[in-house]
Design a protein that fits this description.
This protein has helices at 3-11, 29-37, 56-69, 98-116, 125-139, 176-179, 183-190, 210-215, 229-242, 287-303, 311-319, 342-355, 373-381, 406-415, 435-447, 461-468, and strands spanning 46-51, 74-77, 90-91, 94-95, 144-148, 165-168, 221-224, 245-248, 253-261, 264-271, 275-281, 328-330, 334-336, 360-365, 386-389, 428-431, 453-458. The protein is of the alpha/beta class. β10 (264-271) and β11 (275-281) form a beta hairpin. The radius of gyration is 22 Å and the shape is globular.
Length: 471
């Protein structure tokens, strides 16, 4: 099977398998069946699981980068991918090769087709890719892997791991049609990744000392950045229920930002155990200091499991970090950021204004149809002088065509109340459904501007990836 055919085969599963927790008493049964047929690769390497709403991808990346810089062979699986599906299977920062990806996909077909005939049915696109990542990491004998949870938590395919540490970033409203319409409902789902060690895969025919297995079961370790009091309570209750040690931002650790500019962030990490002063993070955006602090605290906890990660390597990793599509500044003053919910958008725009306070801002925006577009547009309209509304063609994990219609987005902008002075900057809205043409319009606009200008692409990682391919 060629690489192209492998990708096409996998994409044939998009939208065919519906994520429906209520439809099954055991929503992870299908994923566990898939992994069992793969000889349970998830139990053949150590792991860290990173969930939450905002910042989980950046936190997962930073963890993997620190571990790689420290000399550990480190796997990383992220979702969604920005430009190429290979991004979901990385070792030491390098994506799986096209050839290896094709071979790995070919080896999955028999198992997938076998499952299709079973009561559980064939796995979903996301489940297949997670299973492939686990198999790849096991085959390559990684020292440790970092996995970013998908949209869910308790019933997410990645929650089949038995992680040494579970990291949970801040929780906010997102994917409300699937996860729930309140932040508390979403938090309960997200907190479901906090669990006791699953001993089923340690028990076999030769097992006799069950009591010893239970006594020596690992206590979960949790590092979390949740802030809302109601969500903190949910996480605390979950940790108490499973006997987990909770390390909470602003209780057990924190950070102090000293400087933020176009080169990155200077900050101090502070905890009861250790303080790291004058850290330099090359990622842009104040919120990345929080993500980095979660990663550092997770690393400090990982040391207790025997991992040797010197402070100097943490510093080096932060200084050399690069995560595409997250407040990424490209040539010709193009800024790419995949902010796709109101919280992320507000935080991104706050830092954008601080780093580029005087520049005229032209936006190219596109969103998934199921997002809170109205709230994001309100934030954008406060800083944009011109908005070019477009659509993306990229395939998502659940829907082949998930882009919101550009004309409907424009109508929402028209309905915005622009009475406040903060929204008075917006002068023009253009619709161009073709993202390639939208980019040309945006570049022409800033090039012909009589004042310093930047072109900002945001609203969806899928849009950012599509535009990034064209730059």
């Amino acid at each position: 099977m060629t690489y192209g055919k492998a990708v096409k085969y996998l994409e044939s599963f998009i939208g065919k398998i519906v994520f429906n927790v209520k439809a099954s008493k055991d929503p992870l049964k299908r994923m566990r069946t898939f992994l069992s047929l793969l000889d349970n690769p998830q139990n053949k390497f150590k792991s860290i699981l990173v969930g939450g709403t905002s910042g989980k991808g950046s936190t997962a990346y930073l963890l993997s980068h620190i571990l790689k810089v420290s000399g550990y062979k480190t796997g990383l699986t992220l979702s969604p991918h920005l430009q190429k599906v290979n991004e979901r299977l990385q070792i030491n920062g390098k994506e799986i090769s096209d050839e290896t990806f094709a071979k790995l996909t070919t080896s999955m077909i028999r198992i997938i087709e076998t499952m299709r005939k079973m009561p559980v049915g064939a796995p979903s696109y996301f489940e297949i890719l997670v299973g492939m990542a686990f198999k790849y990491f096991a085959d390559q004998k990684v020292d440790i892997a970092v996995a970013e949870v998908g949209m869910g938590g308790e019933f997410d395919a990645t929650n089949t791991l038995n992680p040494l540490i579970t990291a949970l970033t801040n929780v906010s409203l997102d994917h409300i049609n699937i996860l729930g319409k309140t932040v508390e409902k979403i938090a309960r789902t997200k907190a479901g990744i906090i669990k006791i060690e699953d001993l089923r895969f340690k028990i076999n025919e030769s097992t006799t000392d069950y009591k010893s297995l239970i006594i020596n079961r690992k206590s979960p370790v949790v590092v979390s950045g949740v802030k809302q009091p109601s969500v903190v309570k949910i996480v605390e209750d979950r940790c108490e229920k499973v006997g987990a040690k909770l390390n909470l931002l602003w209780r057990n650790f924190g950070y102090r930002i000293k400087k933020e500019n176009a080169s990155g962030i200077d900050f101090d990490f502070i905890s009861h155990e250790e303080t790291l002063s004058d850290l330099k993070l090359s990622l842009l955006g104040q919120y990345q200091a929080e993500n980095a602090s979660l990663a550092i605290k997770t690393i400090l906890e990982l040391r207790k499991f025997g991992f040797k990660i010197p402070d100097g390597q943490i510093r080096k990793a932060l200084k050399t970090a690069f995560f595409p599509g997250r407040f990424e500044v490209k040539k010709m003053k193009i800024v790419l950021d995949g902010a796709h919910n109101p919280t992320k958008m507000k935080d991104f725009l706050k830092s954008l204004q601080k780093i580029f306070p005087k520049e005229r801002k032209v936006f190219i925006v596109g969103f998934k149809f199921d997002k809170d577009i109205k709230k994001m547009l309100k934030e954008i309209a406060r800083v944009a002088e011109e908005i070019i509304v477009t659509q993306f063609q990229a395939k998502t994990d659940l829907n082949l065509h998930a882009s919101a219609e550009a004309t409907k987005i424009k109508n929402q902008i028209s309905r915005l109340h622009t009475g406040s002075s903060g929204q008075a900057k917006l002068k023009k809205v253009v619709v161009e459904k073709d993202s390639k043409k939208a980019l040309k319009i945006g570049l022409k606009t800033i090039q012909q501007s009589g004042s310093p200008s930047i072109l900002v692409v945001t609203g969806s990682l899928y849009l950012v990836g599509e535009i990034r391919n064209q730059i």
